[in-house]
């Protein structure tokens, strides 16, 4: 962490060509299947670098991701970066209709407190607030990358997938102990949280993911979550159509349709989440515990047994033609008694 935090300032002493080569090495991007944008950042550049290379980064990286339907921000390998780069990352994912106070940083050596706000204007365009963002983390994600992950999670702007982050420090200093050959690495800056509330943040404990999974499987898990979320509008639409066509308590249908239209699905990351949320909402609004949504697996919708299935096809019972046989069937299915007090 010390090496990563100390390498970043050296960027400002490089020529523009050297700086560009260094930044390009730490940023990779592509458009994945399903029109999902993928942006891997291994080092968060600071304000000075962004001011010099911002136009290039927007034109060569960001503009190519703007047309995607969802974005994966991969911070699994990001162990360092500049605090001054935080507002740039957050601002491109913030709608921009308001300026938002996202963090307050206290620096012990200078005894100063710095507030971090989103930018009122950015080069190029911001990523649409209607599109999903997933941040990938690992046990190595540290410092500035953790702060960005924490802020996006607290803003409910991103779903965090992967491992708990390292719980590192925003900035470190290496101090010699007296005149010895021993050195002490000390965290010298810390996050106070938005508006300087002083509450516990991610430092020390790390950022807990919304969906925990081994880091090497995080991208695959993220893409599965985005596939589910891409299907949500269609699921809601078909649910509305079914209620309009079949639900017997007709007077409650308009209220149910309104509820479905205004439901917040931002925390849904699995079929189980979706089923739980839909049932809780629909049953509360309709006051009808019989109104039930469930996820049907492909096997359950299969029209018949698959080739090689061990189970025989289901036999549909028939009513026998003979009177005696029908009476025997009724007796086997019903028990009739007159209880004391002439109670049937």
TrEMBL record:
GO term, biological process aspect, one: proteolysis
Keyword annotations of the record: Receptor
Domain of life of the source: Eukaryota
Gene3D superfamilies assigned to the protein according to its UniProt record, in alphabetical order: 2-enoyl-CoA Hydratase, Chain A, domain 1, 3.30.750.44
Stretches assigned to the Tail specific protease domain: 15-214
GO annotations of cellular component type: cone matrix sheath
GO terms of molecular function: retinol binding; serine-type peptidase activity
The protein, known as: Interphotoreceptor retinoid binding protein
